[in-house]
Amino acid sequence: MTQAITPLRQRMIDDMRMRKLAPKTQSAYLLHVRRLAAFLGRPPDTATSEDLRLFQLHLVEQGFTSSALNVTITGLKFFFEVTVHHPELMARMHPVPVPRKLPQVLSRDEAARLIASACSPKYRAALSVAYGAGLRASEVVGLKVTDVDSGRMVLRVEQGKGHKDRYAMLSPALLDCLRAWWRTARAEGKILHGGWLFPGQNPVDPLGVRQLNRAIHAAADLARIDKHVSMHILRHSFATHLLEQKVDIRVIQTLLGHKRLDTTALYAQVATDLLREVISPLDTLQPA
After folding, report:
1. Which residues are catalytic?
2. pTM higher than 0.90, yes or no?
């Protein structure tokens, strides 16, 4: 039997829908509030600032990461500020610093081996897009055939992260790869006219991100790459390799769709080719 939605929960859902929050964000916010209610043992709108302080301490003791704590605080902030109009209750919940780790990056040889080890032409083309254009996994599976603009040599990315459209680069090698995949898929009836560039089992639906992740893990095993490989490592590698090729960092920022330049600047710390070009002051010392 389906449990009835409480008026408070429905109000929060309506508040999120009014602001057009993404479905995943809505689900996450509801989970955070439900978790608070379970901790309290009573409705979440009866919480005090001390209750919220104790709840954060409880999450820390449960082993929540810094990122998970901050996401929880964001969800509760929405609930108390927007839905129940008591922003002052959040005064004793404090976001925590998130350790900033350097992204893992593939060498050019590893990137080539990884793509070549994909189990099918579709996955080889999809991985080529992620590395060759720096797209996120969700952006790769969201491409349609009409998003490939060979005249202007760009890929149109619709509603990427932050609900923004942008253009990504389309190199001649990537265009050749996509054309080869399109010809094969069209001949086999896997791509509909104007449909998804990387369809799922049913051509009406796009390939799933989870399927793409499974494919890259299998390719990494076959290529014997020891690093922790995910779809995002191809995006990291794209940015790092461009930086090593002396591409202006502001151009890379635009290609990646980063809002802040300091996010892109992180790749300067992993661009080892640039580090090798720097002459150490030790090497300039004259013998005593």
Report:
1. 136, 161, 232, 235, 258, 267
2. no
Cα–Cα distance for residue pair 219/78, rounded to 1 Å: 41
Q: 49 vs 45, 97, 175, CA distance in Å? A: 11, 21, 56
The dihedral of CA 237, 241, 243, 249: what is its sign?
negative
The predicted-structure confidence for 231-262, as pLDDT tens digits, reads as follows 989 999 998 898 888 888 888 888 888 877 77
Beta strand pairing status for 154-160 and 148-149? antiparallel
**Other residues' Cβ atoms within 10 Å of the Cβ of residue 274:** 15
Cα separations (Å) of 285 from 38, 248, 277? 66, 32, 18
Distances (CA, A) of 121 to 67, 125, 218: 36, 6, 14
Strands (E), the chain: 148-149, 154-160, 164-169
H helix and E strand count, the chain = 13, 3
DSSP 8-state assignment for residue 278 = S
The residue behind tokens 């009406």 is 204
Domain ranges of the chain: 7-92, 108-275
Which superfamily does 7-92 belong to? Tyrosine recombinase, N-terminal domain (1.10.150.130)
- CB within 8 Å of 57: residues ≥ 6 apart: none
pLDDT digits (tens, 9 = 90+) for 186-229: 888 888 888 999 999 888 999 999 999 999 999 999 999 999 89
Mean pLDDT of 1-19: 86
CATH number of 108-275: 1.10.443.10
